[in-house]
Amino acid sequence: MSDPTLRVDAVMDGIERDVRARLRRHLVKRGGAAEYEDEALFEAVHAVIARAVDGRNLDTTLLPELLDSDVEWRLRTTLELSSHRPAAGRAILFVKRRILLPLTRWLFEYSRENFRRQDHLNRVLFACIEELAIENARLRRTLGTRAGTP
How far is CA 138 from CA 49, 80, 121, 135, 144, in A? Predict the structure, then answer.
């Protein structure tokens, strides 16, 4: 008697489909977009967002390149101490490093984790916006081709 062959891809596709269906029902039940009642529409939205999040390098998107180069949109999580005073600067920095820095270290660590999460979310949102813009451009091109305009 031979063992039946199990197709992993088919099993994984079924599991992923079930997870998306549960997610869709959960979102609708919790007051999410009413349009998600339509399973095909939800699948299309999920595919676009998943392509943006999973299929992209979040550090190489178009939107940050279009932002003014003088504006820093990336969150900086490093703590830098400096002084603009030439004479008293060393003494002030000494006090900041020896007294103030240890007192605020716990607040900085807490804030740094929040900044890291916010930075990741910003990059994901940039990728989603770019993916939607690409999808919009494709649809416009398709509609233009069907209407007879290039």
Answer: 16, 45, 26, 5, 10
* Gyration radius from the chain CA atoms: 25
Which long-range contacts link 26-31 to residues 24+ away (Cβ below 8 Å)? none
The answer to whether residues 123 and 58 touch, using CB atoms and an 8 Å cutoff, is yes
Distance separating the N- and C-terminal Cα atoms of the chain: 61
Q: Which residues contact 115 (CB under 8 A, 6 or more apart)?
A: 75, 76, 77
Segment-wise mean pLDDT, segments of 10 residues, the chain, 150 residues: 73 91 92 85 85 78 70 62 75 78 76 85 86 83 78
d(CA 138, CA 150): 12
